[in-house]
Here is the input.
Amino acid sequence: MLPIHYSAGYMKIPLDGLATLFMGKGELIGHSGSTGSLAFYYPEKDMFLLEMSIKWKTPQFLCG
Here is the structure.
């Protein structure tokens, strides 16, 4: 899984080596984000992996 290559605002993560369960299965291209979202492309299967977490507001607790 190492090294992860960075260029032009995205990452290229090889899926080989000892640090992954997906040894020899290609690579992921995308970015893990820093604000609760991520997007990766898996060219081996022409598949996109997207995740977005939004916290709309702080939970309110009613006491009384």
